[in-house]
Design a protein that fits this description.
The chain has 16 helices and 5 strands. By secondary structure, it is of the alpha/beta class. It has a 5-stranded parallel sheet, sandwiched between helices. The relative contact order is 0.11. The structure holds zinc ion. Zinc ion (ZN) binds next to α3.
């Protein structure tokens, strides 16, 4: 399915900008969609590219029914080239392959687009290799870069793109979006959904990860929080180093520490890990509400670290922070 622009929730500013580009017929050759992970940038990029390709475009983007839209919806539109990391980073070879393809004659005279996502995972060499194409793309070719962290992109890339900013959403909006996903309504209690939205930092994608984490992993974390001895901390740090890169892994401790902060300040509602309430209640008393709130903030900022950052050290520091009296 090609989604209309109105399917992009809570991003009025970005969507208005995209509508203006389409209406004016002056779509910049290089666009940079940026903002937190999980707030709809890639979805918006696909809706926008779908609108660019559509033969019967409406004010709301792609029509969804023309041959171009049907081809786009099948996931195999020959004029859409996608670049994503093969192994954590987008390497120079992938950018060279993209340039090679762009240098060939287009499938048709219709617009062509390259979607680079996440662009902030390009190595410096890959980014440098892209500069000239960004400056002078082949005719009717658009480069759409999607980046979660602007600070990870070289200024030379940023300055060659028109920026499309995406904002984090208020928790109510995150709840609405989650409720709109059929599987979420079936599997989760409304209280759980609200709680996940409350600690997702305005990102529906992150809230979804929070919901999807498994009980097994929660059990391990609750065990660690309840023992909290230096040897256990070191072992957890080591394990984190091995698996900490997995997407959304921090969601579990985040949801638990959020609950601990609520329980320690006497709040009894909106607990995400309802099934662990008794154990968490016992752990919560070990620190002040202020101490738990600080721990939550520390984890939240860790979840925003780029993947190559020293997460093991950050995790150990966090755990020792939880361990010590405040
Ligand atoms: Zn169409």
């Amino acid at each position: 399915m090609v989604e209309p622009l109105s399917a992009i929730r809570g991003q009025d500013r970005a969507v208005a900008l995209l509508r203006r580009y389409l209406a004016s017929g002056m779509v910049p050759p290089g666009l940079l969609f940026f903002g937190e992970e999980g707030i709809g940038k890639e979805k918006a990029a696909m809706a926008f590219i779908g609108a660019l390709f559509c033969r019967r475009r409406t004010a709301d983007g792609a029509c969804g029914g023309c041959p171009e839209c049907r081809r786009f919806a099948s996931g195999a539109h020959p004029n859409l080239l996608r670049v994503s990391p093969e192994n954590h980073f987008i390497q120079i070879a992938e950018i060279r392959a993209l340039k090679e393809e762009l240098s060939l004659k287009a499938f048709s005279e219709r617009p062509r687009a390259a979607l680079i996502c996440p662009a902030d995972r390009m190595t410096l060499q890959a980014a440098n290799a892209l500069l000239k194409t960004l400056e002078e793309p082949p005719p009717s070719t658009h480069l759409v870069l999607v980046a979660h962290r602007l600070s990870e992109l070289p200024p030379t890339i940023i300055s060659r793109c028109q920026k499309v900013p995406f904002a984090t959403l208020p928790p109510e909006e995150v709840v609405e979006i989650l409720r709109g996903i059929p599987s979420v309504g079936k599997r989760y209690d409304p209280v759980e959904v609200r709680a996940a939205a409350a600690c997702a930092g305005g990102s529906p994608g992150r809230a979804l990860l929070l919901l999807e984490e498994t009980g097994e992993e929660r059990q391990a974390w609750v065990g660690l929080f309840s023992r909290m001895d230096p040897a256990g901390i070191a072992a957890a740090g080591e394990a984190w180093k091995k698996t900490g890169e997995r997407k959304g892994q921090i969601a579990v401790p985040l949801s638990l520490v959020r609950d601990l902060a609520l329980l320690s300040s006497g709040v009894r509602t909106d607990i995400i890990n309802e099934d662990f309430r008794d154990m968490l209640g016992a752990i919560a008393g070990r620190k002040s509400p202020y101490g738990w709130a600080g721990a939550f903030q520390a984890l939240l900022s860790m979840s925003r670290l780029p993947p190559q950052a020293q997460k093991r050290l950050a995790m150990e520091a966090f755990l020792f922070g939880v361990h010590k009296k405040d």
